Every structure is written in structure tokens, then in C-alpha cells.
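Students often ask why inverse folding is considered easier than folding. One informal answer: many sequences map to the same fold, so there is more than one right answer. In these notes we will look at a single instance of the problem. The structure comes first.
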């Protein structure tokens, strides 16, 4: 990868501030708030990215009115008690020489009264498809309250030391709901024409300017395409941008796509969606206006960002998940170390997925995300007396442990039984739409090579092999194997595990029945892989629908589109009882009916796994220091392997 330099690291004026480069850490939820207030966790999280070389930070949304509370950990910016937390954040970011804006918002009808015990407010009494609660159509006195709330919160942010605010008028906002014909059915001066539908936004902007003055940066984030019937289109977004520019009250236009309910999977797109997928929006707006425009849309590396700028699609580039994964994205790009950037996978498992589960934001590759105070840059201390550390297993857990131990100065040897490193992820990437997941291994292999870890493949390590390395510390990361004892007959002929199929050890027959007990990518990806090879695939699962856990990673909608194109049959709500002579017997969960599926040429299992912990047991008491990590403790997903690898590497 050749590092960019020409445009990406050119300073730019945004209103009253100057950004030193064009990389923006755009607004995104973190769930780091404590008692509805900004927290120290926010401050350290943003500071890590400021230190890492970002040009501009825009915080997550801050609520402007007590009627707005769609999720538990929203910052209540209408409460003056936010000011000490604001000052803590802004002082830490400014100490790094980076400007910071606060995004302010009211979520409108994309909410419920669960927390407030009040009706949700919206332009019209139309229930949101996700929250399914009919809101109150706001009256003129309510609109005045909304406008006053925005102005008051803008004043709070200025007193709190921010350099400006961004109005979230995009994917989850009462302002966007006023702008969109799909949610605004009003017949008064706030409905009908675009000028009327934009009235609330323009009145909010005018009120903010009265409250904070003209020398305070004001960015507006617009949705360029809601991707729904009667929704905002790119043509309307361009017209709106021109209208706002003529008012001469804003300094910047940020962009977005979709809505945070119906089309959320297009806002925080997974690896199924191509990079730059939303760049048509800033590109069209930038051609029409003179204001600086920020472009977003799965920007993973600085080469991609530089191309966006050089081709004229945007003036600045929003880089979020890539800086969640690697806070030093900007510095590494600037210093021609682009190959060392820990590339984001766009897997959405620990960032977007944790938000959907009401947990604080993390990263599958970077355990320090959200834990910057204890695990961030500068907390990994080199040891005074290096040890000989042996790691057994070259999957994600073992690789991460080897990297962290080597960074601390230990002499690390890694033993792997296969002829390559990477564990099960090596087979995952054979599925076209999951190929980027392989970056987790690529990133770790780059670090292993840079740190001179001694790697030995084709070594089926036993206790004697390990002891022969004379280790002072041993980290066991020997993974797991499919537990075929969980289904009677699963060890019979024509039965294979998903890894058998993806690795090529087993070639599936024409008609395939895939039994899924996990509800995640293991089954859906393998089904897709086989269907693309011409197999007739049916997936049977005990869950409510096939791929149930794909919802939180925003893969569900696009997988179902693909599965329909490929003719995959989905059979949920059936618990498999056993397999005999290529026939699967199952219980229908609701009726209690016992059914038998027609004989299959190949039966494929996506089932729970069993920890391979025998080597750990053999080594107990025989080495000075022993650790066990990843699947050989308990089979889980990749994030657990990475976290435990980090902890073990720090512990030795």
C-alpha cells in the first residue's frame, strides 16, 4: 500500500477553525454516557484518536429536549450538568491540537415513551417501523420548544469548550422527519414544499446563530437518500444544500444515507456492501455548493480517502470504524506507514453489534477500544527481564498473544500444527461476501513479522514438544473442534461440518441440507458458498428465522436478498433430533409435529464446538507459567479470542 500525502494532509479552513488534515472522526454512538452525562471514557476515547492523527472529531449525538430518549445512554445535553464533562473532553482534545464539534439532535418519532413516559414527538402521527409507536404530531408551541432546545444546547456546547456543533439532520432526527415526505404529512407552513419542510431546520440554524454567534462552527449533516418510498432523494438533498448555502449561516455540510430504522443496514454497512457505496451523495452536493462537504461510506484506508479527495467527491472524509480499529490511522498514513494500519473488517460485531445489544462500543480487533484508560497507547509496558514465551496455536488468539508478548519485549516462539496461520478464519474468506474478515489475520501476520516472532508451522505440538523449547511461559491457544455428539447420527456417512465444506476437504453433493444451531455467519455463509457452486441448499434451524444473529451486525437484509437470488430454502422453528441414512428428523417447535426431510446428498453441520484443551491439561504444573485462551477455554467468536490474547500477552 502506497501512503497518500497530496490532499489528505492539506489543512483546510472550516468557518472559524482550521483542520490540519482532511480525516474526520464522524459522529457515532458509543454508549459511554454515565447517568446521561458525558464520561471520562468519552474523553479518553476521543483523545486516543486525536493523538492518532485525526484532523477533526465530531462527537456522538447530544439530546436537545427531554422528550427525546430513544435509548438508555443518550447524553442529556439540555441539562446544564453536562458542562464539567464537556470541559473534560474538550480540554483533553485541544491539548492534542485537534478541534472538536458536538453533534446535537432530537430523534423525534424514532423513539418511544419507554424511558420518558411521554409521547414521542414527530412532524406527523406516523409510527416508525422499528419503534412501532404512534407519536404526537407536534404543535406550533412544541416546535418553538424544539427550536429553543437546540439553541440552548448549542450554548451549552460553547460554554463547554467545543469549537462548534453539528446538526444531525440525517438518519435518526426529527429534522430529517420534517424534511422527508414519507414522515411529514403536514398541511401547515411546515409541510408540503421543500421550502416548507426545511423551515424547522432553517429556524433552528437561525436560533443557534443568535445563541452562539457567527464565529462558532456550524455543520449540518444531511441525508442524501433515505432509500424508502417517498423519501428524500439526492435531487432534494442538493436543492436543500443550495438553500442552506444561500442563507450564509452554516460552515460545512456532512452527509449520510438511509434511515436508522428501515434502512439502518445501509448507514453502517457491513462488508457485504462495497466501499465508497454512499459517495454519490457528497459528490453531487459538492458539485452544487461552495461549502466544504464531508463524504462517508466505509472508508477503510488512506489510499481510498485520497482518491475520494482527488476525484472531487468531497473536501473531507469521514473515517469512523477504521479509526475505531486503529486510532493511529492518521499518523500511520501521514508517516508513510499505511501498511501498518490495522484495517477495519466492517464485520460490525463489536461496534455496531454491541450498540444493538445496549452495550458500550468496542472493536473485534482492538480490545483497547472503550478501555483507553487501562489498555490504550502507552499502557503496554516493556518488561525489564524478557522471558522465553511459547504460544501454541496460530489462530487469532495465539497470534494476538504472540504480538502483545513480543511488544513487551519477550522472546516469542509460536507453534502451529497446520501449514499456515489464521485458524478457522482462513476458510471463512473463501466466501466472497466475507473475504474482508481475513484482514484480521493479515493485520496480525504483519505485526508478527515486524516483531520477529519465531513461527514454526506443521508442528503438532504435544507436551514434550513444548517442554523442549524450555519455556518460561506458555500460552495455549489450541482452538476447538465440532461437537458431533450433540446430534445422534452426526458422525455418519455424507455428514460434514461447515469447515469441511469451506476448506474443500468435502465436496457437497447436489442436494444439501444444512443444520444450523448457531444462527450466525457459519451457516449463512456456507449456504451461500454452496449455492453459488450450484447446490440446492436448504437451511434448517431451531431459531425464529435463519441467520437470527445477523440482525445485530446489519447483514440480515442483504443476506436474504442474496439467498433468494440463489434459491436457498430457509426452514426455521425446527429442532433436529437425529440423522439416519441421509435423512434428518426434526421437531416442529410450535406444533410438536415430528417431520422427516427428504434424503440429502450431503448434510452439513453448523453446530457448537468442543474445546481442545488436552495440551493445557498435560502442561499444568510442568511449566513455570501457563495460560489458556480462546476456543480452548470455551468456543466463542473471534472477539473473545482477541481479547484473551491481549490479556495473556500483557500477563506474561
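Output (designed amino acids):
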Amino acid at each position: 500500500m502506497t501512503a497518500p500525502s497530496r490532499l489528505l494532509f492539506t489543512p483546510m479552513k472550516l468557518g472559524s477553525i482550521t483542520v490540519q488534515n482532511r480525516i474526520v472522526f464522524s459522529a457515532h454512538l458509543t454508549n459511554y454516557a454515565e447517568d446521561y452525562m458525558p464520561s471520562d471514557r468519552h474523553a479518553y476515547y476521543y483523545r486516543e484518536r486525536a493523538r492518532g492523527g485525526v484532523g477533526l472529531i465530531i462527537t456522538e449525538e447530544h439530546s436537545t429536549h427531554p422528550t427525546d430518549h430513544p435509548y438508555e445512554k443518550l447524553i442529556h445535553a439540555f441539562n446544564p450538568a453536562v458542562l464539567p464533562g464537556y470541559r473534560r473532553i474538550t480540554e483533553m482534545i485541544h491539548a492534542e491540537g485537534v478541534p472538536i464539534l458536538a453533534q446535537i439532535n432530537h430523534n423525534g418519532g424514532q423513539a418511544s415513551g419507554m424511558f420518558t413516559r411521554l409521547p414521542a414527538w414527530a412532524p406527523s402521527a406516523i409510527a416508525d417501523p422499528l419503534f412501532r409507536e404512534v407519536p404526537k404530531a407536534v404543535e406550533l408551541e412544541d416546535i418553538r420548544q424544539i427550536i429553543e432546545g437546540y439553541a440552548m444546547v448549542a450554548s451549552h456546547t460553547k460554554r463547554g469548550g467545543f469549537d462548534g456543533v453539528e446538526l444531525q439532520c440525517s438518519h435518526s432526527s426529527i429534522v430529517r422527519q420534517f424534511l422527508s415526505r414519507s414522515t411529514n404529512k403536514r398541511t401547515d407552513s411546515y409541510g408540503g414544499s421543500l421550502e416548507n419542510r426545511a423551515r424547522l431546520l432553517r429556524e433552528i440554524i437561525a436560533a443557534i446563530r443568535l445563541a452562539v454567534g457567527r464565529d462558532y462552527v456550524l455543520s449540518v449533516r444531511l441525508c442524501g437518500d433515505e432509500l424508502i418510498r417517498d423519501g428524500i432523494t439526492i435531487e432534494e438533498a442538493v436543492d436543500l444544500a443550495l438553500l442552506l448555502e444561500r442563507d450564509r449561516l452554516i460552515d460545512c455540510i456532512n452527509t449520510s444515507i438511509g434511515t436508522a430504522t428501515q434502512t439502518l443496514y445501509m448507514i453502517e454497512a457491513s462488508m457485504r456492501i462495497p466501499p465508497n457505496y454512499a459517495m454519490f451523495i457528497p459528490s453531487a452536493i459538492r458539485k452544487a455548493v461552495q461549502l466544504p462537504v464531508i463524504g462517508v461510506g466505509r472508508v477503510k484506508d488512506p489510499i481510498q480517502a485520497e482518491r475520494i479527495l482527488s476525484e472531487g467527491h468531497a473536501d473531507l472524509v469521514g473515517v469512523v470504524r477504521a479509526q475505531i480499529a486503529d486510532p493511529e490511522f492518521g499518523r500511520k498514513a501521514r508517516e508513510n506507514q499505511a501498511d501498518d494500519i490495522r484495517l477495519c473488517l466492517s464485520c460490525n460485531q463489536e461496534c455496531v453489534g454491541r450498540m444493538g445489544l445496549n452495550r458500550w462500543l468496542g472493536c473485534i480487533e482492538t480490545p483497547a477500544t472503550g478501555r483507553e484508560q487501562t489498555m490504550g497507547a502507552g499502557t503496554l509496558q516493556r518488561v525489564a527481564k524478557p522471558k522465553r514465551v511459547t504460544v501454541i496455536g496460530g489462530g487469532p488468539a495465539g497470534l494476538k498473544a504472540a504480538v502483545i508478548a513480543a511488544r513487551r519485549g519477550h522472546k516469542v516462539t509460536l507453534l502451529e500444527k497446520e501449514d499456515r496461520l489464521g485458524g478457522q478464519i482462513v476458510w471463512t474468506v473463501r466466501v466472497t461476501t466475507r473475504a474482508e474478515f481475513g484482514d484480521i489475520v493479515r493485520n496480525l501476520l504483519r505485526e508478527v513479522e515486524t516483531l520477529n516472532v519465531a513461527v514454526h508451522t506443521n508442528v503438532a505440538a504435544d507436551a514434550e514438544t513444548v517442554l523442549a523449547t524450555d519455556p518460561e511461559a506458555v500460552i495455549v491457544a489450541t482452538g476447538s473442534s465440532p461437537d458431533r455428539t450433540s446430534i445422534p447420527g452426526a458422525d455418519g456417512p455424507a455428514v460434514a461440518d461447515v469447515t469441511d465444506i469451506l476448506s474443500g476437504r468435502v465436496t457437497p453433493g447436489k442436494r444439501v441440507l444444512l443444520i444450523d444451531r448457531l444462527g450466525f455467519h457459519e451457516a449463512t455463509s456456507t449456504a451461500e458458498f454452496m449455492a453459488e457452486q450450484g447446490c440446492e441448499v436448504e437451511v434448517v434451524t431451531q431459531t425464529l428465522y435463519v441467520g437470527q444473529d445477523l440482525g445485530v451486525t446489519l447483514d440480515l437484509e442483504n443476506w436474504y436478498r442474496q439467498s433468494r437470488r440463489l434459491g436457498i430454502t430457509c426452514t426455521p422453528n425446527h429442532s433436529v433430533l437425529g440423522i439416519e441414512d441421509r435423512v434428518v428428523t426434526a421437531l416442529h417447535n410450535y406444533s410438536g409435529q415430528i417431520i422427516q426431510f427428504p434424503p440429502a446428498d450431503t448434510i452439513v453441520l453448523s453446530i457448537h464446538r468442543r474445546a481442545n484443551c488436552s495440551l493445557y491439561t498435560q502442561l499444568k504444573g510442568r511449566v513455570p507459567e501457563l495460560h489458556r485462551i480462546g476456543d480452548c477455554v470455551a468456543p466463542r467468536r473471534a472477539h473473545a479470542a482477541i481479547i484473551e490474547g491481549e490479556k495473556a500477552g500483557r500477563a506474561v
